[in-house]
Structure formats: structure tokens, C-alpha cells
Design a protein that fits this description.
Blueprint: H1 3-30, E1 34-36, E2 45-47, H2 54-68, H3 73-95, H4 102-108, H5 112-116, E3 125-126, E4 130-131, H6 138-156, H7 162-180, H8 184-204, H9 214-230, H10 234-240, H11 242-255, E5 269-271, E6 277-279, H12 289-293, H13 301-322
Antiparallel strand pairs: 1-2, 3-4, 5-6
Helix pairs in contact: 1-2, 1-8, 2-3, 2-8, 3-4, 3-9, 4-6, 6-9, 6-11, 7-8, 7-9, 7-13, 8-9, 9-10, 10-13
Length: 331
Amino acid sequence: MSPYMLASLPVFSFLLTYFLVPPLARRMSRRGIVGEDIHKLDRPKIPEMCGLSLWPSTLIPLIFLSLLDPPRAHFYLALFSAVVVAGCIGVRDDLKPLNPKVKPALTAAAGIPILLLSAYSPSPHLPFIGGTRLTIVYPFLVLIALAVTSNAVNMMDVFNGVMPGTCAIVTFTAFITLLVLRRTTEAALPLILLGGLLAFYLFNRYPARVFAGDSGSLFVGAALGSIAIIGRIEIVMIVALMPHIMNAYYGLSSIGRLYERREVEERPTVMLPDGRIDATKFRGAPITLTRLILAQGPLDEKAVARFMAALTAASCLLAVLTIFLIPGMVR
């Protein structure tokens, strides 16, 4: 794929998302699809489900690339189908909340198109070991991976700008990794997502004017998982997404079951009269990445978001370095 084509993909997705968000936000507001920004003292109502703006900016380039490059169309169509499945589950959850035990199982189904289109290699490369062959086990890992990445990104979407900001860092890391590995065709996939995330960040950053909703966060999480599998950079993406994965793991393990944020009575944070956020002292509240960050003292929302971005950037740096620990991966 030519450098000009690669450069045009994020520009297109950025512009399309940028111009889609305002009318979509107005439509959601008129229909009463709004969420309460609980980390503000006045708790403003913010338009929800605006992550739908990321759909056309991701899907249209994928259709275009599949027509332009028929021999590799199955890669583009696999990503297309996976994110649509996850996104539709997100739409359903936004409009009528799903059972927390059902939601992960449904998001795992986003991996089925990748399997049906054979857009994967059952030979992941591991640090210090090199290539492996997991012919029987790998298809099950694909389903698990899509469920994990989709829901981990969803659970990280708690502060203004955190979801698109951290995921943009991870997406850029995937692009750099694929360039280093000289997989220019696969490198187009994260670039498409990157442009849309950067545009959406402008509206979702503090103070947020829109919320992504599950229709956006599950869509993005499934895209990241799919890029990891299709691009054959599974270990790199696991390391890059470690803050998201650990946030989900700590939350679930501390509660001891699958749960939705809306059904937990005691939140991991509390708002102080001066507008800062502090960790709750209630032992029964879930342990999350935010709660761990605030263990040293209260911070304002922008500082928490910066801390999460810094953690993600550090993980992504380690992720890039990981490829040099895998024998035979960098040629």
C-alpha cells in the first residue's frame, strides 16, 4: 500500500467523525438519550451513544480497501464484521441494559467473523520463544480476546477523554509496530481507527460534550482486539492494553462476579466539595485503576485522565520493545 494511501486513511476518518459528532449529539439530546456526568459537581446531562460517529469513519474505508485490494479483502471484511457485531451489542446495551453475564458472551461472538473468514494465523509469536502453533486452541482464544478487549475498553470509559485518548495511544502503537514489522497492509487497519478516535477525543475531552456509550466503547475495543489478531501482534497489544485489562481484572476480582457499573451501589470514588475526586473508604466498593491512582490523595478529573494516558503510554512503550524480545519477529 502506498504511503499516500496510508496517510489519507486517518485524515478521512478524522474529518468524517469530526463532522458527524455535532448533529449526532443534537439528535441524541432531542431523543433524551443522555447520560449524567457524575464527576462534575453540577452533574450535567451529556448526549450518549455518540460513539456511533466512529462507525462510518471506520466502516467506509474498510469497504473501500476491500474493493481496492481483493486478495486481502477477507482481512478488511473480518474487521468490518467484528466491530459491527460488537457495536450492535453496544447499541442494545445502551438502549436496554444487558445482563452482565450475557454481555461478555455476546461480545465474544464478535470473533466469529474472524474465524469464518480465516483472517488469523494460529501461530502467535511469544517473547523468548518465537513462533508457536496453537491450531486447536487459538480459535477459542480469538473469541476470548474479543470479549476481553471489548469489555476492558468499555470499563475504562469512566472519565472525560480517557477512552478515545488511551485507545488512540494504543492504536498508534499498533501502527508503529506493524510498520516496524513491514506489514503495511495490516498497518492500514489501526490508521483508520486512529483518525476517528482523535476526532472524537476533541468532543469527549474535559469538559465532555458527548459520551461514546457502549455503542462506541465496545466498537473500539473489538477493533483493537481484531487488529491484534489480524495483524498477528497479539502479545504487543496485550502489553499495550495492560492498564485497561488490569482495570477490568481488579474490578471484577474485587466484586467477585461479573457486574455492570450501574448496579454497584458503592462507587470506587467520591466527589469532594471542591470538585476533586477521591478514593472511597468503603471496603465493599470495587477496586479499580482509578481507585488505585487516588490512593495517594484526591485529584481533579483532568489529572486522573492524564495519569491514565501516561500509564497507557508507558505500557505502549514496553509493548514496542517487546517485539525485539521475540526471536525472528523483526527481520
